[in-house]
Design a protein that fits this description.
The protein is an alpha+beta fold and 438 residues long. Helices cover 34% and strands 24% of the residues. It has 2 domains: 251 residues, no CATH class; 150 residues, Aminopeptidase, CATH 3.40.630. The two termini are 39 Å apart.
């Protein structure tokens, strides 16, 4: 049993593919206590130098020590983004980590880390009936738009799945970005829900002219109409990109003001103020200068008559432009100032060689008119194999049925982001008389 457990936990992510090699389909790992057919477990591929090692980091000091390893992996991971960078995860934990248990799974291939999956644990209730929940780090308050694990190019997340199935203690697990082929048999057996989370993405051509040529007739017309309308009324728009870490404080204050103004406006589709809470603003103030120092963050501002009337938070990483939250003065909406600022951000990125746009979670006409398409990412829910876990999940499923229909669509309008699922967990926590989790 001891050898079998070691083999399951350190199973090569892609049957011991060489680093940089093209990943092959990975068979499901049988990590259950015994095999039904009585045959021995699958052995590592011949030529595999050593079995992979799993490390579980559970302290803030351990998270700090992981920085060089994390950043080296981020430079070699297909799904790397600002949201699963070390800086983002560290800032989120610094601001929101109180009352939570840190669980960062690191997969090592010799001296090299080839996968990192950050989670945090919550405990609802007391004593033997307490419910243990394991969630992606960043989950819960709609600030972290992407929560995929970091996996080196040419590898798969199968060893992470085996580790979560056999070692981590949890009754309910939420995991985003894991493919079905990565799941071990025991984790497959515990899977209870799959939600495909849509992201708005598109590739960017090498020139602004080529980008505009591919847009709809109406969008091309608006690129001329809104600036002309401003000019007819004697106004001129000026766009500036604030990327200097020392100049970010007033720019962020302007963004928060405009974001709140757009939220308070009742003349259009409802928006939620993601930065109404002081801790959310503290998170942004802590993170923004650190990312800006690495040329990964900027605040785009559009001013009319010397007054800022539109703001957009922009992330950039490895040739991908990510448009985050925005704000606008409702009085200037008839002039399309938000539309003009988006166009300026896209043009600036294209002219600097950015090749991909990631407009993050959700979809809408304001994204689709720029040529984006939906890229679904799976978010999986698993239940533990104890009676307590199954009972808790039964309550979870009942609550989830009141939030989603059978097709996975929200039954009621929910704030932008992952708020519907988060609200569901809040209701479960309320039943267990526990405080908010985010």
């Amino acid at each position: 049993m001891r050898y079998a457990k070691k083999l399951a936990l350190s199973m090569p992510l892609d049957a011991c593919v060489a680093p940089g090699a093209k990943a092959r389909p990975v068979p499901i790992i049988d990590d259950r206590p015994g095999r039904l057919d009585g045959r021995p477990r699958r052995q590592p591929h011949a030529g595999c130098p050593e079995l992979f090692r799993i490390e579980n980091v559970t302290t803030t000091a351990g998270l700090a020590a992981l920085r060089p390893t994390w950043e080296a992996l981020s430079a070699d991971a297909d799904m790397a983004s600002p949201f699963n960078s070390w800086l983002w995860q560290w800032a989120w934990w610094e601001v929101f980590g109180a009352g939570k248990d840190l669980h960062i799974c690191v997969v090592w291939d010799g001296p090299r880390a080839i996968a990192i999956a950050p989670f945090y644990g919550l405990r609802y209730g007391r004593g033997p009936v307490a419910l243990r929940v394991l969630l992606p780090l960043g989950y819960g308050n709609d600030l972290t738009e992407r929560m995929e694990p970091l996996v080196a190019t040419g590898y798969r997340a199968a060893a992470l799945a085996a580790h979560l199935a056999r070692v981590a203690r949890w009754d309910l697990l939420v995991w985003q970005g894991a493919a079905s082929d990565d799941l071990s048999l025991s984790l497959h057996a515990r899977q209870r829900a799959t939600q495909m989370v849509p992201y708005a993405v598109r590739s960017l051509p090498p020139t602004w002219e080529a980008f505009v040529a591919g847009l709809s007739t109406r969008t091309r017309a608006n690129l001329r109409y809104y600036p002309n309308r401003l000019a007819r009324h004697g106004h001129t728009a000026r766009v500036r990109m604030v990327a200097d870490p020392d100049a970010l404080r007033p720019a962020l204050a302007t963004f928060v003001r405009l974001h709140a103004a757009r939220t308070a406006w009742s003349g259009g589709s409802p928006h939620s103020d993601r930065f109404a809470h002081a801790r959310h603003r503290a998170f942004l103030a802590l993170l923004a200068p650190a990312l800006a120092a690495q040329s990964q963050f900027r605040v785009a501002l559009l001013a009319v008559g010397g007054r800022d009337v539109a703001a957009q938070l922009v992330f950039e990483h490895a040739g991908t432009l990510s448009l985050y939250y925005s704000g606008v003065d409702p009085a200037w909406l008839p002039y399309g100032v938000g539309f003009q600022l988006t166009a300026a951000c896209l043009r600036d990125a294209i002219e600097r060689g950015t090749h991909r746009l990631d407009w993050l979670h959700g979809s809408g006409h304001w994204k689709q008119r720029w040529g984006t398409t939906e890229e679904p990412v799976p978010r999986l829910a698993f239940v533990g194999d104890t009676l307590r876990a199954r009972t808790a999940y039964a309550a979870y499923a009942v609550l989830r049925g009141s939030v989603y229909d059978r097709a996975g669509r929200a039954r009621v309008a929910a704030p932008y982001g992952v708020a519907a699922e988060y609200r569901l967990l809040q209701r479960l926590a309320t039943l267990l008389r526990q405080p908010r989790i985010g």
